[in-house]
Amino acid sequence: KIGYSSFQYGLIFSQKNGVGIPDTWVLIDTCSTDSVMKSKELFNNIKEYEASECLVIFTNGGSQFFGKTGNFKFFPLQVHFNNESMANILSMKDVASIPGVRAIYDSSSERTILVHFNNCVYKFKEYSEGLYCFDTTSGPEKCQKVIDTENPKLVQEVTPYYFLSTVASNK
Q1: Residue-wise DSSP of 60-77
Q2: pLDDT, tens digit (0-9, with 9 covering 90-100), for 48-105
Q3: Distance CA 125, CA 131 (A)
Q4: 163: helix, coil or strand?
Q5: Which end is more exposed in the chain, N or C (fewer Cβ atoms within 10 Å of the end residue's Cβ)?
Q6: Which is more confident, 33 or 28?
Q7: Three-class SS state of 111
Q8: Contacts of 38 (CB under 8 A, 6+ apart)
Q9: Which among 138, 48, 38 is positioned nearest to 88, based on CA atoms?
Q10: CB-based burial of residue 159 (10 Å sphere; 0-12 exposed, 13-18 middle, 19+ buried)?
């Protein structure tokens, strides 16, 4: 029997293998063509791909197969899942394509990528090796809620809801 199968192919660049990136961190990467997750806690609506829809990612460290997908909890973004992946990585291309998102990097102010979405600011801080990450245990930096619909500039700082809890935060 002769059949036809197609795969999606993507690129993610990694500098080291086994760098010990915490599962609660989400990296933002300008060199990645796809957004991938290794932590089930960070997304929902997990579903298996059809055989012809699977994603194969090629890195400078080899290739990786992704057979599941789901919705990222912090942004309206579909991500690929493989619990053997090295890290949770958002493609800057995917993040910047979300309607209403504004991504800012100003190294003269601070070495942080600020992602503004739904009146919240998500700080992707620079850590060792030049990785930019958002720690999901701390949530967005600040959120605002309009408290007077007739005067939308009148806002109130609100404590954002965090989708992720850890054993450490339950002590």
Answers
A1: TTEEEEE-EEEEESSSS-
A2: 877 777 888 877 777 888 888 899 988 999 999 988 888 899 999 999 999 999 999 9
A3: 8
A4: coil
A5: N
A6: 28
A7: coil
A8: 23, 81, 82, 83, 84, 85, 86, 87, 88
A9: 38
A10: exposed
Query: How is residue 157 written in tokens?
Result: 């700082």
Distance of CA 121 to the CA centre of its chain: 14
Which pLDDT belongs to residue 55? 82
89, 27 Cβ separation under 8 angstroms: yes
Among 28, 27, 31, 26, residue whose Cα is nearest residue 10:
31
The 3-state secondary structure of 6-64, one letter per residue: CCEEEECCCCCCCCCCCCCEEEEECCCCCCEECCHHHEEEEEECCHHHCEEEEECCEEE
Q: How far is CA 30 from the centre of its chain?
A: 12
- Taking each continuous run of H as one helix and of E as one strand, the counts in the chain are 1, 15
Alpha-carbon distance of 156 to 54, in angstroms, equals 44
The pair of structure tokens assigned to 123 is: 């700080």
Distance CA 80, CA 43 (A): 10
